[in-house]
Recover the amino acids of this structure.
């Protein structure tokens, strides 16, 4: 059975309290009666209420003063307030009531049918709010379990993947058959691609959980770029990368995170840029407070894809092709940049091609953890 919904009624005249109780009494509704503002505040400390009906003219603390105190508390400021008053219908009087936080005014003698209808509306709104809150909590629990599952799955997949990769490396040593060497190379390539996907899943779990502590150390951004370029030697991809340096390329950063960002940007430029065209990487270190790394390639990203390029899984985009990954690379790259206090921007047009700009502070702060804020 669901808990009864509380409605607070405040009036210094007992007959009025009894009359309101007789009007509103029904299953699922519980009336909390208070004869003064002080009693009402005590009840609000203990109970959660869907609506408060407050008499304006009370001794010691009138309804306006009580309303201001209710609105002044974080716990009770969202309670709808309806004022009940026997005063004249003066505009200034009503204005003060609405200024104090009232959602409605009802003048005595109270129209019983109108009061019941108004209360019914606010009770239904309260029930809808409770249902939405319960659904939100359930979704949050489901999201947490999903993220936990992703992290555990990604971690446990690393061991069998390493076995597959080691086995593929040993296969050519066991025989000179050419088909074995080709098969082993394909196994290694697929295993590396799968390992990259696992790393992306683990990165996503870290981002979602806010567990991204920065391990800051002095690093040369130009050397980081050269190291990543050397990793793309397969298929002579490294020969397509030009690296330029302007100003001082040294700064504090988490070299592991920055290397992942650069690897993603360079990998995308080589994969999606125009075939045979060179990729230009420029480290700008003239600014005293920040370092910017530009990765530019020929080719244009369509506008619909550009709008959601940094979203996880690139939902709503048709750019992701089967076998190219999970669509998490640019999302995690931006989150890693933001963990440093920087960001990644992109421009793409026919004149200049596609240009990604990663800008990071030269001396970033080192928070204990970074939480995602976004919009994704």
């Amino acid at each position: 059975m669901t808990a009864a919904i509380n409605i607070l009624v405040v009036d210094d005249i007992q007959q009025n309290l009894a009359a309101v109780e007789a009007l509103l009494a029904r299953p699922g509704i519980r009336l909390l009666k208070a004869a003064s503002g002080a009693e009402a505040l005590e009840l609000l400390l203990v109970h959660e209420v869907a609506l408060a009906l407050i008499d304006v003219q009370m001794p010691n603390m009138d309804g306006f003063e009580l309303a201001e105190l209710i609105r002044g508390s974080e716990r009770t400021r969202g309670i709808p307030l309806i004022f009940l008053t026997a005063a004249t219908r003066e505009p200034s009087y009503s204005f003060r009531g609405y200024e104090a936080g009232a959602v409605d005014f009802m003048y005595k003698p109270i129209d019983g049918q109108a009061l019941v209808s108004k209360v019914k509306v606010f009770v239904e709104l309260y029930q809808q709010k409770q249902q939405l809150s319960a659904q939100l909590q359930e979704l949050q629990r489901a999201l947490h379990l999903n993220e936990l599952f992703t992290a555990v799955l990604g971690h446990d997949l690393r061991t069998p993947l390493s076995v597959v990769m080691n086995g593929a490396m040993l296969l050519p040593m066991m025989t000179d058959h050419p088909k074995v060497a080709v098969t082993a190379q394909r196994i290694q390539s697929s295993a590396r691609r799968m390992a990259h996907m696992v790393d992306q899943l683990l990165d996503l779990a870290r981002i979602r959980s806010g567990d991204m502590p920065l391990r800051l150390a002095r690093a040369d951004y130009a050397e980081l770029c050269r190291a990543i370029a050397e990793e793309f030697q397969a298929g002579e991809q490294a020969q397509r990368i030009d690296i330029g340096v302007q100003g001082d390329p040294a700064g504090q950063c988490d070299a592991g995170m920055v290397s992942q960002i650069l690897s993603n940007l360079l990998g995308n430029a080589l994969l999606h840029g125009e075939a045979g065209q060179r990729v230009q990487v420029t480290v700008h270190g003239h600014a005293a407070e920040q370092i910017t790394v530009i990765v530019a390639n020929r080719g244009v990203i369509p506008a619909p894809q550009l709008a959601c390029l940094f979203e996880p899984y690139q939902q709503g985009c048709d750019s992701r092709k089967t076998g190219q990954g999970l669509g998490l690379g640019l999302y995690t790259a931006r989150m890693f940049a933001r963990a440093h206090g920087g960001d990644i921007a992109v421009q793409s047009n026919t004149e200049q091609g596609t240009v990604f700009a990663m800008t990071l502070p030269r001396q970033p702060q080192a928070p204990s953890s970074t939480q995602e804020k976004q919009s994704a």
